[in-house]
Amino acid sequence: MSKTEIDRVTTEFYGAFDNRDGKAADVDRIRRLVLPQGVIVCTAPAFTAYSVEEFIAPRERLLSDGRLVEFSEWETSEETRIEGDIASRFGTYRKSGVLDGKPYEGEGTKTLQFVRTPDGWRIAALSWFDRP
Predict the structure, then answer these.
(1) Which three-class secondary structure state does DSSP give residue 38?
(2) Model pTM above 0.90
(3) Low-confidence ranges of the chain (pLDDT < 70)
(4) CA–CA separation, 44 vs 8, rounded Å?
């Protein structure tokens, strides 16, 4: 059951950025999936550490102001290890959309740290890097 729930939370996380077919991205769901004190770090192309709110704000703007449309991001491989009430997931992902009127594609690696809370599995931390 734990792996199934972690798979669901991960899929929901990636899906939060989807604005294909004119639908609005639901980045607000990040607030439910990631602990309020969670840490989010991008290591490349530039190292940046975010709070949950610092992570959400620019993505919400970018996905709703018309600059990035038809965007989606999805996991392409993963390895999950669960030990009691903690879990770690290491995976690769791809993304695509239209940025400023031009096709946009990319890929990278994410690692997510999960904890089991009274409300189910939540993301405590995540880190990623985009491949050039």
Answers:
(1) strand
(2) yes
(3) none
(4) 26
